[in-house]
Queue: 2 jobs
Job 1
Amino acid sequence: MRRWGWFAWVLAIGLATVLWNRSDSPDLLRDTDTAVLLDTIRKNDNPWRWFVSDWPLFNHFYRPISTLTFELDRALWDGNAAGFGATNAALALLSIVLCYGVAAQLAESRAFGAAAATLFALWHGPGIPGWLATAAGWLVWLSAVAGLWRRNAAAAVLALAVGLWAVDELVPLSSPKGAVLSWIPGRTASSMTVFCLAAMACHAAWVRRAGFRAPRPSGPLDPPATRNTEPDPSRSAPTWPLWLGSLLFLALALGCYEQAVMLPGVLLGATLALRWRGWRAPWWPHAAHWALLAVYIAVRLRFVPLEASGYQEQQFRSGPGVAVAIFDYVLPTATLVWQSLRSLDLGWLLVFSGMLPSAVAQFGLQSSALARLLLARGPAAWAWALSTLAFLPMAWLKPFPHYDYWPASLRAAFAVGLWLLWWRLAVTAASHRAIPAPPRPDPAPGSLPRP
């Protein structure tokens, strides 16, 4: 497809998904948090107040930018729930489109970006149909059987390990639909996601334009460089607007939701991901990202009380739940092993039940999949790392679906990258084993005599 073809596809699938799943029920405005929030806004009638105070629920959060979306809806729609639902849908659509931009930039493939955005869009609805997940699971097992039949045991095991993880990734950690389309306060996360993805897209484009790709050995399929080779016209375009854009969107994201404090680290991770693929760019722009984060922290301390509110004390958590939430992103089967080990008081019954052996086997498969993922140095590796980093601070809070919204946009790229890796391993497993060439005599027949 041409340059704008993939974008048109993403726009169409995103628009169809959010329109089909958007909510215009009057219950949107009857939620307790929503009712109190809108009532406070109506009484104050001063949109600029939220830049110098706690946000309308007064539970010690600094969210002036996302609060402006509520102010705008109140001015445009007032008591019309359909209008509020339309704003939620618009933010979701922007997130889907920007997911395409980020994935396409970091993977250097518009087709890859379109696949990631399509999966992310489907997560806004009922999700992947059960029959499709079942069919994908059968494909994974058939590839392993074919690999064993061809006596490619190593490739078969790797294909099985990566494929099983890829099947699990078809289902999101928690559905974004209920968080951002049918719950008004959930737009704090969706508006933050819009600005986070915009900052990531700007920054990735800046790295690829302001930097250069490290030279690599030419392969047999690489076209030769000639004096008639046309240069990339985008290389001559100014790069400072992209850098300023990343700063602007970082500031807006920080003003939407506290999870955005991870964005400077994610931008640094995006730079490392592109550096992993051979791109080299200056490091100094990252200093501005961290300096802006420091300014945000200072402003927040100035206008929001430092001590935890009653709501925050209820939401904070510690103990095993934190580790489980993190392992769900890093290596989900580690939770199975941990739960099995906690049941060791059953003694030998645990072994006979198959719980521990099954957990250890799954953990081994997923660990080998992760090792192969990192060795592949492909887009799935950076998406896995960045989605985990984006979610990290939310592990210490009791779970809500909108905590996973920004990470889910990156997790979609991880799922697509896993399927690409599985396909390469499956083809290798199902193919005939390579026949080694006979040793070359020295000197070769017909060669000139050497002293």
Job 2
Amino acid sequence: MSFNNSEFNYMVSGYDLRLKLDIRGKWLNGSSRITIVSHGGKSIDELRFVLNHGLKPLDVKGDNIREWRWYRRSLGDLRDLVVNVTEIIWDKPLGKDGVIELTVDYEGGIRDYSYVFPYVKDCIGGYTLIRTDAFSYPILLLGDLRFHDLVSSVTNQRFKYRIEVDVPRGYVVANVSELVDHRVSDEREIYVYVSKVPSWRIDIAIARFEALEEEENDLKVFYLPEDKGYATEMLDALKNCLEYYRKLFGEPARWNGYTIIELPETWGSQADYTGMLLDRKSFTDPYRRGIYHELAHLWNAKSGERVPSRFLDEGFASYFQLLAEKKFIGDNWFKGRLEMFPEKLKSLAEKTPKLLDIPLVDYGKHYLTDASYLIGTLLLYVLHKLVGDQCFYKAIRRFLKEHYEQPATLENFKNIFIETCGNKIKIFLEEWIYTPKPVKLVIEKDVDEIIKQYEKILK
């Protein structure tokens, strides 16, 4: 059967994960009860879930299931990425509307994917990480067995979750949701968390954590014991950055407190609506404080791009990060960081020559989303200089407000800036969004020279 996400609209609306971990044996037993809702589209008689290739499906339970099977496959467009696929077939086609509930039981170890994605070093051990990026719980696949379709399936989900994690005594389970129960016996501890808001991912870290809290803003930091001093600094930085972003961009669309969880170095920082995983290097180094970038993701519009370019999330967060660094570290640091972007872009273009021929709007289609961190940041910086503080922040606030729930495209972004700041900015935006010209410009010219060039054009 060929799957196409445009043909149906089944989405996960809830997870209930129950996990028991053997830290020494680097093993887990898991049971995931999954609720799936249909919002229309064609009826289907089959669904597929993806699991880490170290986790073996044991059983699938649910009403009217005719059969299920699992197999190991590499993804068609990223063949080095191997996953375990669970395929479930029903007695009769699933209707266009309704709710499906099923339970997937599984066990095994978590194999890292660092050979494909350097930051995905997830495993079970002294520091255990269970998260979406390593497919460490069953993830619904809408579409074909391709990386693009899997990414789309993940990022378009919005679900609530409950997690119950059973660990050896002395280990702490950290999550960005609300702790609703904690039970301790002679040899084991059980932590129960419930999500504060619907999310697209689940992150569970297990280590001998300690924690700091700030009650007024509902802020929390889980840290490794040797890093207590850094954790204190991090809590202060989190509070200060939150106040600064609120001043610039208004209240975040979703605020339900915020939790930082320290990761081992090089494991890759990531953000959710109510917290972040923060790589130790970013955790301990005030000049590379990843909090500025990850917290900025709370001021992201919801993407409506068919294949995300990552400008609307990573481009925005990267530029907002620079603004925070300018505020809290200083102008010299800001200028130095900005000056690095052309060299990084040049290096990226040398490794991936097709970048010179692909516009920003198509970065997702051509696996060039890393460039959105660079071109996206420079686009916003030059735009900011061209329109000035007042108009820039007014347009950004309007864009974020209008696309809190309504998905946004790059065309929406362009139109709001034109409507807010005037038609003269149209030439710049169309060139930087819909043509490959910006990459060549940035490689060949100084950024200040580029700004002067557009100032002449826009007069």
